[in-house]
Write a structure and sequence with these properties.
The protein has 283 residues and is of the alpha/beta class. 51% of the residues lie in helices and 11% in strands. A 6-stranded mixed beta sheet has the order 3-2-1-4-5-6, sandwiched between helices.
Length: 283
């Protein structure tokens, strides 16, 4: 099998975790290669996601690295041996890889959470809302590319709408609920959609109102996806150069703390539903 030209974010994450285990064991790539009887080039290819790794070799590496966390090792094996070709693969070559990586990440997630202050989270967006957001892009997208992005976003929602949904929690600032990315009718339909979803058992929506004192975290947009074990969680954050996935243990810990802080500053779910119901009357 040839080398991967563009490994997915999930493949890269597996590679990163294997590299971290080796470094924690104090071994160089050539030393790990000698333990397996392979070349250091092969170890490097595995650790950069350019090449896959078998369950046998992965468990052997974990043993040599003195990793005793069997649940974590099993989770890495599941990542290494998974051959899922999900619906997002239909868009490979048609959409940027970041779109596909996010869909794959969500497909395997044990939970999802969002914090948004200026836009409704993607998993809660209506088709009209999503179209308005993508249509605002500069330079403007051709009609067929706009349609692809909207369709992709709508298909992502399956994780909270399917028969075995993923637990989902959203913290949304009032600004995101009031900003009209399209027209009044679309804004009302979007808010009604969020209200409907917030009444589902596995979906929790919390609102941070404008009149909340001491809220200085409007820039803290983030997307959290739970891994098979907590150390395999991922956080996606938006920045000036685009989106970036955060996966280091220290950063994940800090962002989990930040998420708890933002939740504490929001209304509880019942009060959030009442708040959105009142807002519906104003739109």
């Amino acid at each position: 099998m040839g080398l991967r030209r563009e490994p997915t974010a999930r493949q890269v994450r597996l590679a990163v975790e294997l590299r971290r285990l080796r470094e924690a064991a104090g071994l160089k790539a050539r030393e790990a290669a000698a333990l397996l009887g392979v070349s250091s080039t092969q170890i490097n290819q595995i650790e950069y996601g350019q090449s896959g790794v078998s369950e046998k070799r992965l468990r052997s590496l974990a043993s040599h690295y003195a990793c005793m966390d069997e649940v974590f090792i099993d989770a890495l094996v599941a990542m290494a041996t998974d051959r899922t070709r999900g619906w997002w693969e239909e868009d490979r070559g048609r959409l940027p890889s970041a779109f596909l990586d996010l869909a794959e990440l969500e497909h395997h997630a044990t939970y999802r959470a969002d914090v948004e202050c200026l836009h409704v989270p993607g998993l809660l967006q209506t088709e009209d809302y999503a179209r308005a957001v993508f249509a605002y892009r500069v330079p403007e997208l051709p009609d067929h590319e706009l349609a692809l992005r909207v369709a992709h976003r709508m298909r992502r929602k399956a994780i909270i709408e399917r028969a075995d949904p993923v637990p989902y929690e959203a913290v949304i600032h009032e600004a995101a609920l009031r900003i009209r990315v399209s027209d009044r009718a679309a804004a009302r339909a979007q808010l009604a959609h969020i209200l409907d979803l917030s009444g589902v058992d596995h979906v929790t929506v919390r609102v941070i109102p404008f009149d909340r004192d001491g809220f200085a975290g409007a820039w803290n947009t983030m997307m959290l996806a739970g891994g098979a074990v907590p150390k395999l969680d991922s956080v996606q954050r938006d920045g000036p150069e685009g989106t970036a996935l955060v996966d280091s243990e220290a950063q994940l810990g800090a962002l989990r703390t930040l998420f708890r802080k933002l939740k504490a500053e929001s209304l509880d779910p019942a009060s959030s539903r009442d708040f959105m119901s009142r807002l519906m009357k104003e739109l």
